[in-house]
Amino acid sequence: MVDSLKRPDVEELRPGIKRPAQDTILTPRFYTTDFEEMAKMDISANEEELQAIISEFRSDYNRHHFVRDDEFQQSWEHIDGETRRLFIEFLERSCTAEFSGFLLYKELSRKLKDINPTLAEGFLLMSRDEARHAGFLNKAMSDFGLQLDLGFLTESKNYTFFKPKFIFYATYLSEKIGYWRYITIYRHLEAHPENRIYPIFRFFENWCQDENRHGDFFDAVMKSQPHILDDWKARLWSRFFLLSVFATMFLNDIQRSGFYASLGLNARDYDIEVIRKTNETAGRIFPLILNVDHPKFFELMDESAAANLKIAAINGSNAPKVVQTLQKLPHIAKIGINMVRLYLMKPIDTAHLEGSVR
Questions:
Q1: Confidence at residue 238, expressed as pLDDT on a 0 to 100 scale
Q2: Strands 17-18 and 12-14
Q3: Which pLDDT tens digit goes with each residue over 222-278?
Q4: Which helix (H) or strand (E) holds 31?
Q5: How far apart are CA 211 and CA 174, in angstroms?
Q6: pLDDT of the residue at 4
Q7: Buried (b) or exposed (e) across 60-85, using 16+ Cβ within 10 A?
Q8: Sequential DSSP letters for 123-190
Q9: pLDDT of res. 78
Q10: What are 289's strand-pairing partners?
């Protein structure tokens, strides 16, 4: 049911259809890759594990999970003001990220079908899951009088080209951090049901298992290509992608701390927990992980988040664009310098790590 409350001030393509958020370095990205290179990959070194994961995909444990029940059929006027704006933004960002995964996986399944059928089936089944997630999120947006035109999104978004090994790094981390984000929110709201402001959060326990299985698929693919994990370049790229994913989440979430507060969460504490868990999980496959326990790690993250808040404030000012650009430069430089310092921080060699997390 769409309530009668006036929607937040948003740009619309047409009535009820939200114009997609402008691309920035912190917004969800759409990817493309070298399909020919990926199709030629020899996965025989770990095909047994891949087939086991694909068998789980075929079981489709969540095929009856994403069904809107009676709790959705009500007015949501009580979610208003800034909380409403931030919640719509959360739904949009989540929908865009899931839809991005759908597009990439669907295209990979199509291009690999006749050449590498094992990978093609895995990507096809993951695209099924991502489409389901995106559709569920987009339908949730309609409860607040807005939706995304996913066809328009497909055509209007800029696509980032990554070579296959970088696709593996990025999507593996995206799926695993998605798991930890969803399960952490779910467990918090399970303990504090009074803060569950909208029924979509009830679905996060099963939902995050899709993310976890997708991450396991990319884990298995990378194990089948040991050359992308066992040289000095892999050590550098592991650090780069871990830092990129963690910094993007941290800066975004601190900027939107009001949304997490509405759920009874402290955004900083939540992100620290998710970063620690994702970093530990990545230690099962990456040759290096970040030393997030270094006393300077979150201090530098905090400084960068503060600089990002100042940039956001400048963007929202009435100053001329040229003036805004000049005002933002020192804050952009601050973030850049901090990211370099974080990247150069001595990492942890995972060859010495034992154990696992779930």
A1: 96
A2: antiparallel
A3: 999 998 998 999 999 999 999 999 999 999 999 999 999 999 999 999 999 999 999
A4: strand 30-32
A5: 9
A6: 37
A7: eebeeebeeeeeeeeebeebeeebbb
A8: HHHHHHHHHHHHHHHHHHHHTTT-EE-HHHHHHHS-EEE--HHHHHHHHHHHHHHHHHHHHHHHHHHH
A9: 84
A10: 348
Amino acid at residue number 101: G
Could you say which DSSP state residue 319 is in? S
Q: Name the β-bridge partners of 147.
A: 17
Share of the chain above pLDDT 90, in %: 80
289 — pLDDT class (breaks 50, 70, 90): very high
Q: What's 75-97 look like in SS3?
A: CCCCCCHHHHHHHHHHHHHHHHH
Residue 164, token pair as written in the block: 């296959």
CA distance 342 to 356: 25
The C-alpha atoms of residue 284 and residue 243 are separated, in whole angstroms, by 17
